[in-house]
Amino acid sequence: xxxxxxxxxxxxxxxxxxxxxxxxxxxxxxxxxIVSAARHVPSWCNAQPWQVTVTRGAATDAFRAALLxxxxxxxxxxxxLAWPSGYSGPYAERRRTCGFQxxxxxxxxxxxxxxxxxxxxxxxxxxxxxxxAIVTSPAELGPYGAMDCGGxxxxxxxxxxxxxxxxxxxxxxxxxAPLVRESLDLPEDRLxxxxxxxxxxxxxxxxxxxxxxxxxxxxxIDWKD
Length: 225
Fold this sequence. Notes:
single chain, 4-stranded antiparallel beta sheet, 8 helices, 4 strands
């Protein structure tokens, strides 16, 4: 059991948010393997609310172009689920540190707003990934369906890592939920939660060189005796 734990912990530590991909598409069987593993995560009442719409080839390129156009034209933000009302305390600090690590990795000065905006827009270019999986959940399940889908997203990224595939979950695309729904012909009764861009990592790109920090167990556990 210790060996199994060590392997699992190593897999978790190996996973990272990839922000630069090679253009090579994945074999269909590899994508099926990822989903086949991820589908075993728990869900409330075993509802398994997750559904993924996976793009490849021309569909990825068309979706990328539509997202980037909307972002550049300042299309109104319309997420299906409300954004966080704020980030305070340690959450704000972790968010800020991650952003600064990214800027430092690519040589962007904190005062360079144009370069920071260009880096932000990379989200809508899907970081050049050959595939994106749009994760949706039935609207009737509300936040509980979304919570279950969070487990699926985690398992998807871990299964991908185990197969040598890089990935990055992206909430940014949820800002344009109506566009996502229209572009990919998604039903109106499903919430657009996030994307997972995935493919083979461009290991030479500087954005893939840094790793975010993690809180210690002592910062997470609140013991009650």
